[in-house]
Design a protein that fits this description.
Number of helices: 18
Order of helices and strands: HHHHHHHHHHHHHHHHHH
Distance between the termini: 47 Å
Radius of gyration: 21 Å
Structural class: mainly alpha
Shape: globular
Largest sheet: none
Number of strands: 0
């Protein structure tokens, strides 16, 4: 049978038991074929894990699987390749903290060759002046900081201690500007900076911020009490779903009070439509 698609041919090889990730690498350039490997039970575990990452299904991987030395070695071997280009941004979400510290040169070379986004390389290396130097654009700074913070839930702002003061100040200054989704990294910022960003967030930014705090740690909530209170007070009917998620996640009386005020003061069609759309 003639197999015109390299991704299809590689997928079939993986289904027949191939374990060499470089042989099945064409599969990882196609998320649809990669999804097949993510779900098929008899595929090599490392191949299946890489398939899950590429097909944007990281929840299929347990923390123990993400820490497997074999998976770590496989990803490292693909840095700088076309398959690695597809894998590294998703690996940055689940890799053990500081995983890239052993692969700094390869990751930097991959960034220079446009085979890895700067934020993903910086997130994988961990907070340091070397990784910070990769981050120039806001679309790289914010997600890198978000992942640095998520790697240490008990001290999400500890990344600031690992950078030279000039780099830290550069990032914090940049994060005061206008940028889509900047609010996602609020729990990872010093409380005073988070409050300043919240004070100028638009309606969409408030929703993103509420969602970010809904999955943040209790440590963040304790440190960002004033910022959170400001955010809750700014919530309107179009932030209702995100505000409810925060209230449920942390049983926040202040959030529930605001929810009741919104419902009592705005019982018009937009609220009913909003609730029906989010809670079928």
């Amino acid at each position: 049978m003639h197999l015109g698609s390299p991704a299809l041919a590689a997928t079939l090889q993986a289904l027949r038991g191939e374990t060499d990730v470089h042989i099945v690498a064409p599969t990882f350039r196609d998320p649809w074929f990669a999804r097949v490997l993510a779900f098929v039970p008899n595929v090599d575990p490392v191949v299946g894990a890489l398939g899950a990452l590429v097909s944007v299904l990281p929840n299929l991987l347990t923390p123990a699987e993400c820490n497997l030395p074999a998976l770590s070695a496989a990803v490292a071997s693909l840095i700088g390749t076309e398959a690695g280009q597809c894998i590294l941004p998703w690996w940055a979400d689940v890799a053990p903290a500081g995983w890239g510290a052993s692969h700094v040169t390869a990751l930097i070379d991959a960034v220079r060759d446009n085979r890895c986004p700067p934020w993903a390389a910086a997130a994988l290396i961990g907070p340091c002046d070397t990784s910070a130097a990769l981050l120039i654009q806001m679309e790289d700074i914010a997600p890198a900081i978000q992942r640095w913070g998520q790697a240490n839930l008990d001290a999400p702002t500890s990344w600031t201690n690992h950078l030279a003061s000039a780099e830290r100040d550069r990032f914090l200054k940049a994060l005061r500007g206008d940028s889509y989704d900047i609010e996602r990294c609020l729990p990872c910022l010093p409380a005073e900076h988070a409050k300043e960003i919240i004070a100028h967030a638009d309606w969409n930014g408030c929703t993103i911020a509420l969602d970010a705090y809904a999955i943040a740690s209790p440590v963040v909530h304790a440190q960002h009490t004033v910022a959170l209170s400001t955010l809750i007070q700014r919530a309107k009917w179009y932030n209702l779903a995100a505000l409810t998620r925060l209230a449920v996640a942390f049983r926040m009386d202040e959030a529930w009070t605001t929810i009741m005020q919104i419902l009592l003061s705005r019982t018009c069609a937009p609220v009913r439509t909003f609730l029906i759309a989010d809670y079928p």
